Amino acid sequence: MSKVRDEYHFFCEQPRQMRVLLLTNLVYALVIPVIELFLGAYIIRKSNDISLVMVYQLAQGTGIPVTFIMNGYLLKRFHITTLYALGMIISGLDMGVMMLLPQLHFGGIALIGFIMGLSYGFFWANRVFLALTSTNDKNRNYYYGLETFFFTIASIIMPLLAGYFIAATQKLGWLGGHVRYAYHVLTGLVILLTVVASVIVHRGGFKNPVNARFIYFKFHRLWNKMLGLAALKGVAQGFIIAAPVMLIMRLVGEEGSIGSIQSSGALLSAVMLYFLGRKSAPEHRVKIFAAGLVLFLIGSIVNMTLYSALGAIIFVGCLVFARPLLDLAYFPIQLGVIECVATKEKRNQFAYIFNHEVGIYIGRLIGCLLFIIVSRKVSEQAALRYALFGVAAVQCLSIWVARSIMSDQEWCEASPRQPLDPQALKEPAEL
């Protein structure tokens, strides 16, 4: 208990804005696992067409960069916390709209996915900027370690509770035995949590970014490397978000299994990641990043070799550790590069946040289209078995790119830099 108190006091010593942002993300962390896991399961259950999940993911990925552009202009008129809260609330409402659709077809799934992408766009565009301005390079490992701890704990609690609630509704006759009513209850909980998170973030006293141009086409070579890393990450995202649900539903069984498998091992992962964020330094980020990619590759090899319930369980178990490790290393690298290049090129930091999302989207588009083409032209098994391994193998290139970025970033930080002059950035927001 004394160590717990020490960690609590260390948290209280952090800047207030950083603490408010962490508490906001703690509440919203309870929402994301429900949306990511059970919307995919709901689509498969109601349509029995696994490719519609990728249509949903592709539409969602398209909505995100569209919102980044909208967000850049809306920041001139609205406060950043208002747009951040809007993104969280839309995600809950969009889930509710899907539950009310009498039938799931291509057009409806694409529209719902696009709207969910809009919500994620508002959330991520403003979240990255708030994290950038609320932290510095020294405390970012701790920030993302603690945030990842929150999200990992949520990935234990929410899938377990929600999965068993859905399964028990059917088996024990709760809510008349209608599974759709269980989804309606979960949707109500999601909306409530998004409202609570929105209230918290308004207490942070955050400031809007400088009103300046944010769309550019030419960048420093260091940022071009960061875009390459973003594109590689996007390709994996196209598979990682949907693949666990597809494998579990096809090879293991039901939504209750999703909750159980996703939760197993996640507690150990959460504790490990918290202490990694607490104790690790910036020079450890590439090693942490490489560890996450190796775990992803191992899980995909086992899944490809066995392609069974056991293989799916091992793959999801590897993913439980791999995703947080990748996030813990990736986001501090991204923010450090943004600070460095924005100072060198004397541009608005939001310009790089927007451009980074374009790189992510290109990769995500490639990943989703690859899955849809393989599943439709070859077979669903080929997509979940062999294409998934191919994506994991290609991801290993990210280790070399990340090492090159860190090397260039050290050079960038060692060279003289002048602080940004906000007045110099105030120019018309033109293309």
UniProtKB/TrEMBL annotation:
* Sections of the chain in a coiled coil: none
- Name this protein carries in UniProt: MFS transporter
Give TM segment ranges.
Answer: 20-44, 50-70, 82-101, 107-130, 142-166, 181-206, 227-252, 258-277, 289-322, 358-374, 386-406
InterPro entries linked to this entry: MFS (IPR011701), MFS_trans_sf (IPR036259)
Organism phylogeny: Bacteria, Pseudomonadati, Bacteroidota, Sphingobacteriia, Sphingobacteriales
In terms of SUPFAM superfamilies, this protein maps to: MFS general substrate transporter
Which keywords describe this protein according to UniProt? Answer: Membrane, Transmembrane, Transmembrane helix
